[in-house]
Amino acid sequence: MQPREGVVGHLTGACYPSHYEIVIMKFIQPAKYLYLMILMAALGPQLMAQPNVQGQWTTMSRTMPINPIHVSLLNNGQVLVVAGSGNNPPNKNLQAAIWNPQTGTTSTQTVSWDMFCNGAVVLPDGRVFINGGTQQYNPFFGLPNTSVFDPVDNTFIDLPPTLHGRWYPTVITLGDGRVMTFSGLNETGSTNSTVEIFASTSGTWSPQYPANFTPPLYPRLHLLPSGKVFYSGSTPRSRYFFPSSHSWSSVIATTNYGGTRTYGSSVLLPLTPANNYKPVVMLLGGGNPATATTETIDLSATTPVWQWGPPMSQPRIEMNAVILPNGKVLAIGGSAQDENASTASYNADLYDPVTNTFSSAGSNAFPRLYHSVALLLPDATIWLAGSNPKRGTYEPHMEIYQPSYLFNPDGSLAVRPAITNAPTTVGWGGNFTVQTPDAATISSVVLVKAGSTTHAFDMDQRLVGLSYVVADSGNLKVTGPPNSNIAPPGYYLLFLLNSAGVPSVASFVQVTAGPDFTITTSPPQQATVPGGTATYTVQLAPSAGYSGTVNLSAINPPTGATATFNPTSISGRGTSALAVNTNGLNPPNFPATFPFTVSATDGTLTRSDTVNLIVNSPGDFSLAASPGSLTITRGGASGQSTITLSPSNGFVGAVNFTVTGSPGPKIIATVSPTSLPGSGTTTLTVLAQTGSVTGNFKLTITGTSGTIVHTTAVNLTVQ
User: Fold this and answer.
1) Hey, do 425-511 and 516-615 end up sharing a CATH topology, with the first three levels equal?
2) Cβ(199)–Cβ(173) under 8 Å?
3) How far apart are CA 719 and CA 694, in angstroms?
4) What is the pLDDT of residues 261-305, one digit of tens each?
5) Handedness of CA 441, 444, 450, 456 (dihedral sign)
6) Residue boundaries of the structural domains of the chain
7) Residue 42 parent element (H or E)
8) List of residues 6+ apart from 573 with CB closer than 8 A
9) What is the spatial distance between Cα 508 and Cα 447, in angstroms, rounded to a whole number?
10) pLDDT for the residue numbered 30
């Protein structure tokens, strides 16, 4: 995609009318409007050259080698990019990448499962938590898989899965550091209307907590200072989730827009001492055709009510909204019609929560539609990437926005306040010192959560203002955030802003209760046969300066099995090999699953991880379908195929069956029975209802026994 030409920016200097004033003038003062257009034609290039008014957009020389669908800022300043299959069904080269803003280089790597359309946040210890993905396209079915990415060694480690699939889930960090996941399509294509909560301290998922409504995909969620989670959209009826009782409220407010703000954005506006950490949420754009409208809701009110906000300069679906260090919100990208580049919204708008107004932030160069992403970087610039309105192609060009706060009136770069020393960890409510030679000129100290963005929403975005006093000419005495609901544990960008509004380059600060660690056992389930040995790797990830030694043990391994660690303890960061021998284990049936706990202890501090040992039946099995092809008529009789399970080499395990590949909800494919005890036949029945699609399709029948998986296919023709 080539950048468009002839774009005229907004005139937003103090002497010039705003975009909105110009639009009004066109209709009520046409003579004055014509004069203004002539003046703009003459002076526009000079005015647009004033980066201190609108900021400055730059297209980077290097391009992104994979489709940047999901992005997370790491605590080393680099960016994790996840594509998975990249919205390209034939693509089996599942990929992720690390983009380095300092060098502009990108290094790619493969991933073990399709993370396309996941939910992600950065965990309190700095690892990236990834939940859900794509089991199949057209129709989409979701995966239950979960992984973490460790930025220390750039590796992905699998975690226990959720109970059911999640394609398009939202995940957020709660005040106690646990991670909540909600919504997404499950493994049969239905909406997963439950909440599950993951605790990294134990490596376990909670039970499912059902909602009292069916959520949209990628619901907009925000953790509030009260500890409640606010659901703001995209549908119009807002609710609370109560983590303490695992329950949902009834509808607490309804948007003025009234419709679904599809792929609009939602932002928790800055929480600061000046506003008493008052939670206000803003909705921007969305819908198809898109709207330019915005709304805000004050959730500190006794009866919260959505209020209209100022409109953006252009309607936006598939937009991004990024909080800047000065508390303003940058609204960028999107289009008036979904996935239609000819209606792309190039104008960038800057919202000021203090004045409740928008101003111009210039214009970017490339259409940024479906699967576009944006992140605040540590140097206080914004990175804009991606756009994938057509399957199999994406926009590889990346852009950087330098906000106006980085420039002097003459267009030169402003002198930035400096952080010469800051703590790597801070707690809640305590004091800490930030060294800066600019202490006397500092007007604001803020924390901005490291972002994780996909599908027009940053799942953990928040800015927390901090109280401070000038201790002396080189030091600020800063008070940490009041509590973990205002600033959930994790990594933040610490910015200092001077009296001119110029931000420093950020220092990464971990908000935490103190030194800690987590352990992760990989894989989360491992299989063997009777008399065999299953092996795992136990990884210790230290956090907040932890440098102690942990002793490892297995809690409640299956009777007859023995578990050994090598080494038996880990100091600092490291791994241990866990071997579970099953010589004395005699399961009555196969496959048999045995959960047990891996425990790591240092004094009174214990962290654990729950894993599964699966004992498969000896031998193997195969599947065959007869007939291998079916032809059925819409609204007519069903077709059937017999699936034969044939054991070999003494296989006696139970086999469970599933069928995938159905091209739509009106073509119903089932197997009965859904399980066989080691051998026998099951029947595939396919029915095409009136109004279903026609054509040729491939149905895949999968048989699973523990970790032994085989498939057979039936070719389906619907007339």
Assistant:
1) yes
2) no
3) 5
4) 999 999 999 999 999 999 999 999 999 999 999 999 999 999 999
5) negative
6) 425-511, 516-615, 620-718
7) helix 30-48
8) 152, 540, 541, 542
9) 9
10) 53
256 token code pair: 């003025």
The CB density around residue 245, as the number of other CB atoms within 10 Å, is 8
CB atoms within 10 A of CB 9: 23
**What CATH number should be reported for the domain whose range is 425-511?**
2.60.40.10
d(CA 660, CA 566): 42
Q: In three state form, how does the secondary structure of 83-152 look?
A: EECCCCCCCCCCEEEEECCCCCCEEEEECCCCCCCCEEEECCCCCEEEEEEEEECCCCEEEEEEEEEECC
**pLDDT value at residue 23:** 37
Contact criterion met (CB below 8 Å) for 451 and 460: yes
Chain centroid offset of residue 651 CA: 42
> For 53-86, how does the pLDDT look when each residue is reduced to its tens digit (9 = 90+)?
999 999 999 999 999 999 999 999 999 999 999 9
Could you tell me the two tokens for 412?
Answer: 């030169």
CATH architecture of 516-615: Sandwich (2.60)
Contacts 24+ apart (CB under 8 A), 15-19: 16/47, 18/359, 18/360, 19/313, 19/347, 19/360
Amino acid type, 493: L
- What residue type is 712 in one-letter code? T
Q: Which two tokens stand for residue 321?
A: 């909204």
- What one-letter code names the amino acid at 183? S
| Residue that has been written with the tokens 């959505």 in this structure | 306
Q: What gap in Å lies between CA 461 and CA 354, rounded to an integer? A: 19
Mark the ranges of the chain whose per-residue pLDDT is less than 70: 1-49
Helix, coil or strand: residue 51: helix
Q: What is the dihedral of CA 95, 100, 101, 105, to 10 degrees?
A: -80
**Number of other CB atoms surrounding residue 19 within 10 Å:** 20
CB 284 within 8 A of CB 312: yes
Architecture of the domain spanning 620-718: Sandwich (2.60)
